[in-house]
Write a structure and sequence with these properties.
Largest sheet: 6 strands, parallel
Helix content: 25-40%
Distance between the termini: 76 Å
Number of strands: 8
Strand order of the largest sheet: 3-2-1-4-5-6
Length: 201
């Protein structure tokens, strides 16, 4: 008759259940350029949801039909790193840069979940983007990999056919497009608006 080592089974069970699950926010985008609004969004989500860290993830090539002209991905990543270097909550995530090509969130998060199965990911988007989730690549599979976090914005509903956690954040009336058009480096927060190859905008 086969016997089971109850002590060993108990120890193994306690060890497995004791493994902490990391809670990590992901803020993706072109960051062309990064600005104060990005930092405030990330900080608010990190604080309100009690996340272990928030990762800024520049895309290699956005999949949008209306493709925007962007500077080199290396320069965008360097600007992000410069912007977040003094905040212990923030990290730079380079998964999409390293993979290259068009950056589909589903493919990226499938890769990250396989690499870090003990991590629970919270994908941060603006409230204006929530209405477009139905157009995202493999959205029905993506919602099984991440929890979406929507930043409330005036004039946009806080409802969705997909599960979304809503977070309040101070309204910062600035966008990357405005910075490029007006060429105002002060809007970067800690950034100078220039890189190793000279002025970028």
């Amino acid at each position: 008759m086969q016997t089971v080592n109850q002590t060993a089974t108990k120890v193994l069970t306690e060890t497995v259940t004791a493994i902490p699950h990391r809670r990590v926010g992901i803020l993706g985008g072109t960051f062309n350029p990064p600005h104060l609004g990005h930092l405030i969004m990330a900080q608010q989500v990190g604080d309100q949801l009690g996340l272990d860290e928030v990762r800024f993830m520049p895309d290699a090539q956005p999949p949008h039909v209306d493709e925007k002209k962007t500077i080199a991905v290396e320069d965008r990543a360097n600007m992000v790193q410069e912007a977040i270097v003094d905040n212990p909550l923030f990290r730079l995530e380079t998964a999409e840069i390293e993979r290259g090509g068009k950056s589909y969130t589903y493919e990226t998060m499938k890769f990250l979940k396989a690499k870090h199965p003990d991590t629970q990911y919270y994908f941060i988007i603006g409230g204006d983007m929530v209405d477009y989730l139905h157009t995202w690549y493999h959205i029905d599979e993506l919602v099984k990999l991440v929890t979406f976090v929507g930043i409330k914005r005036t004039g946009y509903p806080t409802t969705s056919q997909y599960p979304v956690i809503w977070v309040d954040a101070p309204l910062i009336d600035i966008s990357s497009t405005q910075i490029r058009q007006k060429n105002q480096p002060r809007a970067f927060g800690p950034l100078s608006g220039s890189g190793s190859r000279g002025r970028l905008y």
